[in-house]
Amino acid sequence: MSRPFKRFLLLPLFVCLLASVGAQTTGNAGTPAAVSEPAAAGTTAADAQAQQGTSETSDTSDNGAAAGEQQTDTNIDSQSPAAPNTAENPAEESDGAGAVSASDGTPSDEIAPDTPGSAGTDNTVNEKHNSNGNVQGNAVNKDHSKNGHIPENGAETEASFDEGEADAALQKNRLQGQDLSVRNSLERSLITHRFEGGVAAIADSSVTRSFFAAGKDGFITRFSYRTMKPETWQVSTMPIKRIAAHPKKALIAVYETDGFSIHKISLWDWQTKKQLYAKRFTSSVLSLSWSAQGTYLFIGTASTEGITVLDANGNVKKVYPRPPGIVLLAATGPSEKSIVTYGETGRLVYADIAKKSILTQYETEDRLENPELIKNYTQIIGYKNGNVVVVKAASGEVLENYPARSALFAGKITDSLPVWIEKGESGRTWYLCQGDKKSPAFSLPHPADITAARHVDAAVVIGTDDGRLYRLTQNKDAEILLTELNIDVSIPIRDICTKDSKIYMLSGSTLYASASTADKPEPVIQSVSGDRCTVYGNGFLFWSAEKNAPLYYAEEGQTPVVLYRPRERLNSVSVYNDTIAAVRAFSGLVLLDGKSGKQLFTYQAAGLQDAVQVDDTFVLITKSTGGVIRQPILLINIKTGETIPLNMDGDIAFSVQGNNKVANTFSCFRLKTEKSEQTDLMTMKLDTAYPARSSFAAALSYSDEDLQASLYDDGYAVLTTLGKNQLTYYDKRRRSSRQLPRDYALPRKALMTETYIVSVNYDGSLSWFNRRTMQLLQYKTFTEN
Where are the transmembrane segments (predicted)? Predict the structure, then answer.
């Protein structure tokens, strides 16, 4: 039975000077870095195995160039996404072992490398494709205490230093030599962020005296041990599932996935906010960890290959003569001579890294959930059948079983006993446990499930499914005290639109207006229902792309009224004179009278994406290629009902837009998947008299799928988020593109006035740019005040 205790002896920070202390974990799934004999022995289990003879040997080379040596789990498609902007996303390369670098790119061609937040650059070369498959312009220029207790005040060890001064020095060094936009961007990253969708992982980085937290919204925040000052950067538009902090440097490995087909590992330099490389995998990643010194990155997958080992440059290193099976944990000893893996079948496999041979194997408890390493690499812990199981790493012997209702592991490599968060009886209470000790029950101030936990410095940090982070300490009565670390009072902006040179911002249930960066946003329409806004006549349409909701109309100062009640959510809404084109998610197009809401025309078809009325006769529709008509773009004659496929190939077209400056010119995106996935920004000139004469051109290309891309076409230029990175400004007349500096958050949607470019970002913040210089002018968030 577990027993209570009077003082919080729960998490003694065992000072271990006889073995490496650099292993990092990867959040709630825990994949730490090395296995050893007890610390007193001074030799880890993995290193001890490296001194024995080999039982299997492979004479293959490191690069695994032969077909039979390839890591078959990794995607070998050389046309995965890549970016010429090496400061953000280095170019994709296919290495000899079958792994593919897959950096999310930015749509331009041969662009000079930018640092985060750097100014835009012009490009005017006439190449269509780079050799590495980059995104391109197709006609564009080229923490411990002495007594082992957690100090009540969170004091640090004798070895600690003034982290406030250290952080200040770090910021100073990073900002020196940077231009204004870069400095501004890095300074703006020092913000508090609550993770939308929840906290996915927490990783300790003792070498930098900090820890990282990652969310399902693609954001990562670093917190200093002492000051708890946050530093936030969005690394992906997809959910992050695992992270692993480098044991020696300010590097962070990230696993991001859409939960279906996209599985990507990327490595980021946190000081510069640069992505160093990225790899695409064909199956889900089950573990992510570094070797003890950070020489290798271990990626355990659900494939038959089991594990991919990457060197410092992201190249695949061949280690095993045959695949070890599905790997849930991988580690080395401090010498990094050998690697040990734990698989779901309960097999511990030791391999010599240099000789590419199997040293020995042991059978132990199988199917341990979320296995981690403790006691300086000598013990493996995991959860199974209502018990926290402790296994001796050097032999597979089961050392201990601790009964537990559940276990979310929160330990670090130097802990001598397993540490975990356990659910209480009520479902709203929790316990902090270490071995057979259990804290008094505690509850969260904002009821939520705990999704991540980590022993950080002199405390435990937990993350929840509502995106909050808490630091757990205790008072003299051993009660758990919680300090919220990421209090975020901002209110996200959900959508933006422009009318009469003003920017209109939809936040909460209010539409605000602002004409410039100097203006304070003023509320103009309240009681708004919906998450999208579209300009119509003297007012605005409000609708929802996320749920079934009515289409509303309101002018400034008025209360929105229902114009149309669809039976499903809407994919898109556009306006032509007094006609509204609405694409319903499942039943196709409907044209509405803007004044009465009366249905004027319907076109029922599945797979419709967007619609724009061209003139009094034709509507332009984008769609997927399913059904009888294979072309992804159509003209519909609303007078006769005739359907005219247009001669543009591709699997799907979406986000079509017109403009009021240049007649019959439109822009959209096209996705092609025949040879490899590629998303193109298409510009088109329609000939309604002779539709076959309509012309199409790929202005920008991105060598991957980007179905979340958005665009804004003002007739002379197109502004786009294509490439999942920075905004790109494409000048139609000059056929040139220019990248805008990115902020700490990635842009989700942008628009232009004569003076400004404005983007609403994935966290609901707003970025203002000077349209002429492309310089970032201002960053804004809304709060309740």
Answer: none
Tokens of 559: 């209360």
Residue 776 in domain: no
Neighbours of 411 (CB within 10 A): 26
Render pLDDT for 312-351 as a digit per residue (tens, 0 to 9).
999 999 999 998 989 999 999 889 999 999 999 999 999 9
Distance separating alpha carbons of residues 538 and 622, to the nearest angstrom:
28
| Assigned domain for 609 exists | no
The Cα–Cα gap between 498 and 750 comes to 10
CA distance 744 to 222: 13
What would the pLDDT profile of 281-311 be if each residue is shown by its tens digit?
999 999 999 999 999 999 999 998 899 999 9
Question: Is 410 inside a domain boundary?
Answer: yes
Domain that holds residue 344: 27-73+144-484
Which amino acid is present at 405? R
pLDDT above 90 covers a percentage of the chain that reads 69
CA-based torsion, 600, 603, 606, 612: positive or negative: negative
Whole-number Å distance between alpha carbons of 43 and 18: 9
| Residues 157, 723 contacting (CB under 8 angstroms) | no
Specify the pLDDT at position 216.
98
Give the residue-averaged pLDDT of 652-659: 96
Number of domains in the chain: 1
Q: Residue 38: inside a domain, yes or no? A: yes
* Mean pLDDT of the 434-451 span: 95
* pLDDT for 475 beyond 90: no
What is the chain's length?
785
Find the farthest-apart pair of alpha carbons in the chain and give their distance in angstroms, rounded.
Answer: 86
Note the pLDDT of residue 767: 95
The 3-state DSSP class for residue 371 equals strand
Q: In what order do the strands lie in the sheet containing 776-780? A: 747-752, 756-761, 766-770, 776-780
Q: Which string of DSSP letters, residue by residue, matches 712-780?
A: EE-SSEEEE-TTTSS-EEEETTTTEEEEPPP-SS-EEEEEE-SSEEEEEETTS-EEEEETTT--EEEEE
CATH of the domain at 241: 2.130.10.10
Residue 340, Cβ density class (10 Å: 0-12 exposed, 13-18 middle, ≥19 buried): buried
> What stretches of 292-335 adopt beta strand conformation (E)?
297-301, 307-310, 327-332
